[in-house]
Specification:
It contains one helix and ten strands, in the order H-E-E-E-E-E-E-E-E-E-E. The protein is mostly beta strands. It has one domain: Jelly Rolls, CATH 2.60.120. The termini are far apart.
Length: 124
């Protein structure tokens, strides 16, 4: 095993300003991106929302995007509703639905985000 086999997220996370029109600069790293036409998830990201930042409200097409809150808490907006989320919560953002997330707490909010294209299924 070499030192290249283990990389700490501190070296990988990069600033992403005003993500989807959101507040401030979040940190993100794309862990995986599906090759064109390949099977599986479109992408898998790690995202860190420092206090006072957000992922702006946005929509996707026929893709289902899932947020898994790894640590921290925030205010989630999904399809006209707002609700609190915290560590361990899984939020499925439906195709064509509007969603966004604000870190209104005093600690970083860590997310695992993945998106899958629903090619042969009706919009759920």
């Amino acid at each position: 095993m070499s030192a290249d086999d283990v990389v700490n997220l501190d070296r990988l996370l990069r600033g992403k300003e005003h993500d989807h029109g959101g507040l401030g600069t979040i940190l993100a790293h794309r862990v995986f991106s599906r090759p064109e036409g390949g099977p599986g998830a479109e992408f898998i990201d790690i995202a860190v929302l420092p206090p006072g930042t957000s992922i702006g409200r946005h929509r996707h097409g026929r893709d289902r995007e899932t947020y898994i809150v790894l640590s921290g808490s925030g205010l989630m907006h999904r399809d006209g509703a707002e609700f609190r989320v915290g560590a361990g919560d899984v939020v499925v953002n439906r195709p064509h639905g509007e969603h966004g997330l604000v870190n209104d707490s005093a600690a970083d909010l860590w997310l695992l985000v993945f998106e899958e294209e629903l090619r042969d299924h009706p919009a759920v």
